[in-house]
Write a structure and sequence with these properties.
Layout: E1 3-4, E2 16-20, H1 31-45, E3 49-55, E4 65-68, E5 71-76, H2 83-104, E6 109-113, H3 121-124, E7 132-135, H4 140-147, H5 156-176, E8 182-185, H6 188-197, E9 205-207, H7 224-230, E10 237-242, H8 251-261, E11 268-273, H9 280-287, E12 293-295, H10 302-311, E13 314-317, H11 326-333, E14 338-340, H12 342-345, E15 355-357, H13 363-375, H14 377-390, H15 396-414
Parallel strand pairs: 1-9, 2-3, 2-6, 3-5, 6-7, 7-8, 8-9, 10-11, 10-13, 11-12, 13-14, 14-15
Antiparallel strand pairs: 4-5
Length: 415
C-alpha cells in the first residue's frame, strides 16, 4: 500500500528544504512550477528555509539568484538558442548549485519536481545523506499511452514533437528513479502508474494533496456585477476551460460537445484560457461555433484568472490524462461545479456532489452532461453547494502543513 499522510501524525517542524524544478516558479504560469511556488511561500510562513534551483534559460530576466517572499531562488544553466545545449548546461549548473547548497546550507531534504529536474541527480546522490525525493504527478509512459497515438492521424507534427519529448524524458525518469529514495504523487492513480510502468514499490510512494485557493483573494468582497464590469462577457451560460496542451486536455471533444449543446441551448459560451492552437481553431470554424468561443490567451494575471473563474457557471476539463488537475482544484476553490473525465476529476470531484464525471474521448457523453447541468436548476444548485463545501479542503496553507508532515516522515525513514 502507498503511504498516506494520515497514517500517522508527524509533528510538523521547520526544515531546510532544497527543490529543483524546470522553470522559474514565481513567474511560470500554471503547472508544476506554479504549485511549487505557492507551496514554498506557505512553507516559509511555517518557519522553513526554502531554496529553489531552476533553469534560467527559460527566464526572460535571465536572473541568477534572489530572495522573493522569503524563498531563495537560484537560476542556473545557460541561455543558448539550442535546446540540447541548455539541457546539458542546466544539468551541470544544477549539480554545482546543489553541491554548494549541500556544503553551506545542509538541507534536511531535497525535492526534485518533475522529470526535467532529475538530470543532475545521479552525480549528486553520493554527496549527501539527506533524502532525495521525486515529486511528480504522473508516470510519463502512462500519460503518453492514454492519448498520444490518438493524435497521430490528426496532427502529425504534434505527435512527432511530443513523442520525442516523451522518449527522452522517460529515459531521464527511468534512470532517475534508481537514485531517489521515494516518490511523492498527488493521486491514487499515479501510485498505480508508477507501480505498473516502472515496478516501483508502493511502500516508497507517498500521496500528497495540492492546494488551489491562490487566486480567490482577488474576488473577496466583490459582487458578480462588479466582477463582470472588470471582464465584460456576453450574457448567457458560461463554460470555462483552462489549459495549454489542448490535445491531451480533450479540446477536440469539448468543441464537438459544444456544437451539439448549441443545437438545443443557444446562449452558451465557452471561455478558453490558453494560447489558440491549430487544428482546433479550424475545427471550431467548421463546426460554426466561433461566435460562442471567447479566447483570452495564455498570459493573463492571477487577478484576471480569478475573475473568469468567478464569472463562469461550469468548469469543464475532458482530459485524456492528468496527474493532478490544478485547474479542477482551483475551480472547486471558487465553488464552481465541474464536468470532467475521471482521471482529471478524481479525487477532487465526486459524481453528483460537486460535479459530473464523463468518460474520456466521448463528446456525446460530454454534451449530455453539459445539457443536464445547464438545464436542471435543482441539480445545478446541489452541485454548487457541494463545490462550496468541498473548497475548504484545498487551501495551500492546509497543503503546506500536510507537506511538512510528509517530509518529516520521509526524513525519519530515509535520512
Amino acid at each position: 500500500m502507498n503511504k498516506k499522510i494520515s497514517q500517522r501524525r508527524i509533528i510538523a517542524r521547520p526544515l531546510k528544504i532544497c527543490s529543483v524544478v524546470f522553470g522559474r516558479p514565481d513567474t511560470t504560469i500554471g503547472g508544476t512550477e506554479s504549485c511549487l511556488w505557492f507551496l514554498s511561500r506557505e512553507l516559509v510562513k511555517l518557519g522553513c528555509e526554502v531554496h529553489v534551483i531552476y533553469d534560467r534559460s527559460l527566464d526572460p530576466s535571465n536572473s541568477h539568484s534572489m530572495i522573493k517572499d522569503g524563498v531563495y531562488l537560484q537560476g542556473v544553466g545557460g541561455s543558448s538558442s539550442i535546446r540540447p545545449v541548455n539541457i546539458l548546461s542546466f544539468a551541470g549548473g544544477a549539480f554545482k548549485k546543489l553541491t554548494d547548497i549541500e556544503n553551506n546550507v545542509k538541507p534536511d531534504i531535497y525535492i526534485f519536481h518533475g522529470n526535467y529536474s532529475l538530470l543532475p541527480i545521479s552525480r549528486f546522490k553520493r554527496l549527501t545523506k539527506s533524502p532525495l525525493v521525486y515529486h511528480t504527478y504522473t508516470a510519463l509512459p502512462a500519460e503518453a499511452k492514454r492519448y498520444l497515438f490518438k493524435t497521430f492521424g490528426w496532427s502529425l507534427q504534434y505527435f512527432i514533437k511530443r513523442g520525442s519529448n516523451y522518449l527522452f524524458y522517460t529515459l531521464v525518469e527511468y534512470i532517475g528513479l534508481k537514485y531517489i529514495d521515494c516518490i511523492i504523487v498527488s493521486s491514487p492513480h499515479a501510485v498505480k502508474e508508477f507501480s505498473e510502468v516502472y515496478e516501483y514499490p508502493n511502500t516508497k510512494i507517498y500521496t500528497w494533496p495540492t492546494g488551489g485557493d491562490q487566486c480567490t483573494r482577488f474576488i473577496e468582497g466583490l459582487s458578480i456585477d462588479e466582477i463582470e464590469e472588470k471582464i465584460p462577457l456576453p450574457k448567457g451560460k458560461r463554460l470555462l476551460f483552462v489549459g495549454n496542451d489542448w490535445h491531451r486536455k480533450g479540446m477536440k471533444y469539448l468543441l464537438q460537445a459544444l456544437a451539439e449543446v448549441l443545437q438545443s441551448i443557444k446562449n452558451v459560451f465557452l471561455i478558453i484560457i490558453g494560447s489558440p492552437q491549430e487544428p482546433f481553431m479550424g475545427m471550431a470554424k467548421k463546426l460554426g461555433i466561433l461566435d460562442h468561443i471567447i479566447l483570452t490567451g495564455q498570459f493573463i494575471s492571477d487577478e484576471q484568472l480569478a475573475y473568469y473563474y468567478a464569472a463562469c457557471d461550469v468548469f469543464v476539463l475532458p482530459s485524456s490524462h492528468e496527474g493532478w488537475s490544478g485547474t479542477v482544484t482551483e475551480a472547486t476553490c471558487f465553488g464552481k461545479p465541474v464536468v470532467a473525465t475521471p482521471i482529471a476529476a478524481l479525487p477532487v470531484v465526486e459524481e453528483g456532489v460537486n460535479g459530473l464525471i464523463v468518460p474520456p474521448h466521448d463528446s456525446k457523453a460530454l454534451a449530455h452532461a453539459l445539457r443536464k447541468i445547464l438545464t436542471d436548476d435543482m441539480l445545478y444548485q446541489k452541485l454548487l453547494k457541494g463545490a462550496k463545501r468541498r473548497s475548504k479542503l484545498y487551501s495551500w496553507k492546509h497543503t503546506a502543513e500536510k507537506t511538512l508532515e510528509t517530509y518529516g516522515q520521509i526524513i525519519d525513514q530515509y535520512g
